[in-house]
Fold:
Amino acid sequence: MTKIIKDRGIVLKKKRFRETSKLVTIFSENSGKLNLIAKGVRSLKSKASAVLEPVNLTEFVYYYKHTRDLQYISSAEFVNDYSRIKSDYDKLKYAFAVLDIVNLFSKEGEPNQVLFDMTKDFLDALNDKNLIESALFDYFLIKTSKISGYPVVSFNCPICNNELNLISYEFVFTKDSGVICHKCLWNKNNLIDLNEAEKKVFVDLTLDNLDTFIDRNLQILTKKILYSLIEFLKYHVEEFGRLKSIQMIET
Ligand SMILES: [Zn+2]
Structure:
């Protein structure tokens, strides 16, 4: 039996399929990752073709038949085309990195509301607010570490379990354990040295104080945090370091 399903989702990637069609990967709100065929959309008069491009948030309808591996899209409309992101190379670079991360952490047929909301929030903020792009990406990576099962920071030191005092900066950042209390630093090989200004940036991001990142002078500090977070995620999630878009950000 074929079901007709309506959902909304973020287009992660697309590729050509046969002569006239597209194979589109969408991270949907209700069904997780979906691989869908959009028939005949490669013709110039197809409106759905413009909708089914990476970064777009779309509301779409598809036919679901459990005996088929690939399902067919019947229609797709724009919810948001994020035009400001697409016209700015720096914004686009971070958007593609986020799409790669979502592709890595999402599973077919498994909805993930937390990942969906944080991805939509990231794209909305990148498009609409004048905050430093790398700060928004840092914020996304801190949340990514939580859903990956390796939180980079929590309320307690992961080694001695004492409460962490983030506000007084009495912590250190390590590649393997993330944020630990300064008493637990016995293995200096894994230490990523952050100065007080960089620690303040990290604490503001951890405590959701994003408004402060309108000040472009903070950009260099947010990049140091970005490299630290990437080091941490690469240590725990092997595939993370292999993402081309992450390698582009690192260079
Ligand atoms: Zn400790």
In short: The chain has a mean pLDDT of 93. The first strand starts at residue 3 and ends at 17.
